[in-house]
Amino acid sequence: MAEARDLDTIFVRKIPFEFPEDLQPHWNSEQVEWSHMVNGTSLAMPFLEPYLIRTMRKALPAIDSEVLRDEVKLYISQEGQHYQQHRKFNDLLIAKGYSELKAVEQAMAEEYRAFEKTRSLKFNLAYACGFESMALGIGHWLVEDRETLFAGADTRVASLILWHFIEEIEHKNVAFDAYQSVYGDYFYRVYATVFATLHVMKFSRHAYQAMLKKDGLWGNLSSRWRLLKMISRFFGNMLPPMLSACMPWHHPSKVQDPQWYQSWVEKYRKDPSSAMVDTTCL
Ligand SMILES: [Fe+2]
Ligand SMILES: [Fe+2]
Asked: Which ligand neighbours the alpha carbon of 45 most closely?
């Protein structure tokens, strides 16, 4: 387990994001396929994150370290903020004509409930740990590649996504430490990391496929090509951190935080309105 850390490193930010009527599902108008990939991931959050919260809550009594228990509570508060903001954004997506997403939501609700009913706490905690490895990799990618991914995009959505994954970087150690402290089974962790990654990707794909179909783009060759390029970019950026997370010596604390992450955190401390990023100069 990592050494005790300053609890100030996990800070619960309640950001009053708003997603008014004028916000478009193609919030990055130059990159419709990318917009829908993000929308698809957003769709999963109000199902995935409450499941992570319930799992971590169940693990709390088995965690010996008081410091870690306090970190788990902060983790729960952060994830609680994340899914509530995504819920508002997802409601807007559905209201804007993507009612097919409700079927994907239903499937996610059922699968996560089934995990809790039929699988062990070891599985669910390992899933949380595995998903957090993925979230850390995505956080680094979004931050390092922010200009390509968010330049010129709607600031409200870009800010939501960047805030969320800034906090994923911030709480990178918690689910890992919780799993290590309660179970610590290495091979099971690797299995669950692969499982959780593919599981979240499956739902995200169902969602962006439904939205691209609705747009009449799913059968369009140039749209498919742009989607393929973005998926390749995702895999190119995710493969190294995921492989690294599967090594026996891995600990998230060894992953150096990006510079932009640190400046985002410092800026926010001085001025919370800085959470709204300027997408004209990323
Ligand atoms: Fe989150
Ligand atoms: Fe997280």
From this structure: 1
